[in-house]
Amino acid sequence: MRRLLLLTLLSTVFVLAGCATGAGDDAAGAAGGGTPGDGGAADGISQADDDLRIEVDRGDGSPPETWTLSCVGPVEGTHPEAEAACAHLRGMSAPFAPVPADAMCTEQYGGAQTARITGRWGGEPVDLELSRVDGCRIAQWDALGPVLPVPVGVEPLG
After folding, report:
1. Using one digit for the tens of pLDDT, what is the confidence trace for 96-115?
2. When comparing pLDDT for 52 and 154, which is higher?
3. HSE-up of 136 (CA within 13 Å, CB side)?
4. With 108 labelled, which of 3, 89, 140, 157 sits at a CA distance of 20 to 30 A?
5. Cβ contact 46:56 at 8 Å
6. What is the model's pLDDT at position 26?
């Protein structure tokens, strides 16, 4: 059963990666609410490229956490795994592409965790809300690797 779940998650990640190609640019621009170069998702504050704010609610009643992550030049910020997070994001082609509206997702629940990532990446505004409420969103969360915390009781992929 565990192997089947892992295969399902991996399949979902590959499907999402294929669907996200090309669609992420339009969605990222629309989600940021501004034009490139104006800070868009940063509430009017000008930000450098590859500069993020990550808000995480672990869904366990603990207070939400907020981290900063800057992958420009030397890695900086309050993210607990900043080096690993930047390295992981640099290796992804469209890390903040939303789940396509027409995606068929497995009906499974991965937990009450939620997150929001705002800022800029690759010259584009980022404003992405994440959760673990179905197979697509679980795969999206897990694909971000060290950027987001691994929920308690869940084994990280890879």
Report:
1. 999 999 999 999 999 999 99
2. 52
3. 15
4. 89
5. no
6. 40
Two structure tokens written together for 86 = 């930047």
pLDDT at site 85: 97
Measuring CA to CA, how many Å separate 98 from each of 16, 28, 56, 75, 95? 9, 8, 17, 25, 9
Give the pLDDT of residue 77.
96
Q: How far apart are CA 146 and CA 139, in angstroms?
A: 14
Beta bridge partners of 53: 68, 118
Task: Report pLDDT for 94.
Answer: 94
pLDDT at 155: 57
Q: Which of 57, 54, 97 is nearest to 79 (CA)?
A: 54
Residue pair 133/107 in contact (Cβ under 8 Å)? The answer is no
Residue whose C-alpha is closest to residue 89's, from 117, 111, 109, 48: 117
Degrees (nearest 5) of the Cα angle 118, 122, 124? 55
Q: How far is CA 94 from CA 22, 59, 65, 126, in A?
A: 9, 26, 24, 11
